[in-house]
Predict the 3D structure of the following.
Amino acid sequence: MELFEVDMAQAGEITPLDYTRYDFKNPETYRLRIPKGLSRDVVTQISKFKDEPTWMLEYRLRAYDHFVERPMPDWGPDLGDIDFDSYTYYANPLLEGETKRKWEDLPDDIKNTFEKLGIPKAEREYFGGVGAQYDSGTVYHKIREDLVKKGVVFCDTDTAVKEHPDIVRKYFGKIVPYNDNKFSALNSAVWSGGSFVYVPPGVDAGIPLQAYFRINAKNVGQFERTLIIADQGAKVHYIEGCGPAGEEILVGDRVTPIEQIAVGQRVLNSDGVETTVEKTMVRRYDGDLVGVHPASPGNAFQLTPEHPVLCIPRRKVSKGQYGFQSYDILDHERIQTITPEFVPAGELHPGDFLVYPINKTTRDDSSFTDATMVVLGYYLAEGCVQLINECKAVTFTFHIDETEYVEELSKAITELTGKVPWKNPQPERHAVTVGVYSEALYERCLEHAGKYAEAKALSKAVMDLPPAKQRSLLRCYYNGDGNVSQMHGTVLRVMTVSRQLAFQVQELQARQGFFATIRIREPFEETMKDGRRISHRRMYTIYHRPNRHVRTVIRRGDSFLVPIREMSWTPYHGDVYNFHVAGENNTYLVKGFSVHNCTAPIYSTDSLHAAVVEVVAEPHAKVRYTTVQNWSKNVYNLVTKRAVAYEDALVEWVDGNMGSKVTMKYPSVYLRGRRARADILSVAFASQGQIIDSGAKAVHSAPDTSSKIISKSIAIRGGQTSYRGLLHVAPGATGVKAAVRCDALLPDESGRSDTYPYNEIHEEDATITHEAVVGKIGEEQIFYLMSRGLSESDAIHLILMGFLAEFSKELPVDYALELNRLIQLEMAGAVG
């Protein structure tokens, strides 16, 4: 047999797949980057890169000295594993001063990153201004012209230092001084990027301003500095964001619908090696699916547009003409040496080469002799198991002229059972039946090859055997069910109505060094032949052309490169699925082709995010600061956020914490003017390996001030959440009203939730309430919802979203939808 040439027939069944939107990372190409480690020289170099005024450099150096002297916190989560010298403190993909004002001016890799996160859509449809930070550099900032005309300033903080020095110097470090805590000192020493907002007196910005923060590189810290000033009577809302069922996954011995993939299951990755599923995910998706139609029609699949697919773009290996029929002008040397890359499905083109890795799993078993493989091969093609007079028998039916195959099978049966099989010629049907009574052979065929034509499939034990043993099985299967067609040259093909068997044969042929193509013929109406009613079921044809050089599929090492025939786009509304696997090669195979599981990129080493946010609400001003952060679970998220509110001002923190390895964040409001108000709404969701220590602080320094703190947390699968809060009423702050409510939900037995409230009340007339509740999901609640048609996972998800409704209703609709999806993703691995 020679290599199998592909067929150009149209594709068969296609069903959707998805990934979580954010686990992707770009190559680390930076215009400016400082080596790892922290020192006074590093701090000075950062300031020099930015061409900062002397006062800022001096501030940075004072902060660095304090950072070095100040010990790590002796409370809260354990931070002992942080090695400050293992991080890069400045990595900018652009030169300083190159922040773009036009989206199309961004480098393609950065632009694609933020397009995946929805920035252009946000800018067009909802927000008054958008900023984007990529590692240490602010790469994009833009504000609507109508807001500029009102005098609103929205830019990155580096630009503000140069263009608005008087305002910056007046407020910078006054709300959060560098000596407030160790991590505010670190930020003050090495800060880069962040947002600066100034809203003039009496101006209502109306439309929210939004910023996105993204850590892309390994071991890079992000230390943005945000300063927001709402002058007297001004109003501003600032939003901060951090960064289909049925599709079939190759699990080694068979293809499995992605929604049936379970934690602990073994699947194949892009190296052709088995790996373990660690987490499964599902989310609702409304949009277009990308159809990828490779040159083997039966392997067509669908993905969401941003899902990375391993490929070699044809333009990178073509010597001239670009297109599907350009094989003869490919650079064959380059195609064997170029490194395949992950490309979003929506950016693939016809002619690009998909990667089909060869399964390397091999487990020998001496019980599978050559005679066993011969019997199993003929059984797949011509055999069945049946009870004859209550005796277990295995029978095979051949054409009467296939005497050579009958003899080979008979010898194998005798070797395995010690019995001579019977032969029953049927001249009127031009057939001969071969059979044997043998319970052992009956059970072996049933166990390792299945029963009934549509359900026949090989066991994992057979699929994992060495390729040399599998060769006999393939030869006998092709002897029995194969045929030769002379259409467009000689074509050897084998047909089956078993979908599993079709993909298994393709995989077995790949292990023999051949790429087999699959074509699907859809079922059609019954017909009559020789007085018999014939049902035409869905048929899978696996075929190749012998003695001819393959013109389209290319062998490369332990994989095949299969060109894309065409691309398609289909509207879709429904659930899409994805999963994580163990190891850094977080890939799996869809219809045999390599794809990547993809908020923030996932690395095996940790990253550090230590931001500082300062908010000033002058008299009668209103500021709302909304955060929904979903950092990767290797990020230490150590943030200081503080606001001051003067007379009749209102500050609202709406704070959601979903990701990170460790989060310590306690948004606070210092109420320094009469009748100032603070509303703080905080949500934490911790899953396996996560500690989220969050809370809030309200410091009442003036009379008749009021505050409301609502904290909600969910801890599941061993995750830990803590509420750590401070309510302080200073002497002289009479007439204070304050309320604190902490609600914790533990959906399973392994989550943990703690509460650490600190109340310091120095005025007797203060009205203070504190309420804390810890609850579980009642079985009767789940039962009631399931009795109304919901699945268990949907029922739990609905209960959780009801628990978080107080938070989600305060979010813009896009953020509320994303929160819903993030909860779904976390719960998908916790139920079932």
About this structure: Residues 101-248+608-780 form one domain. The CA atoms of residues 11 and 297 lie 4 Å apart.
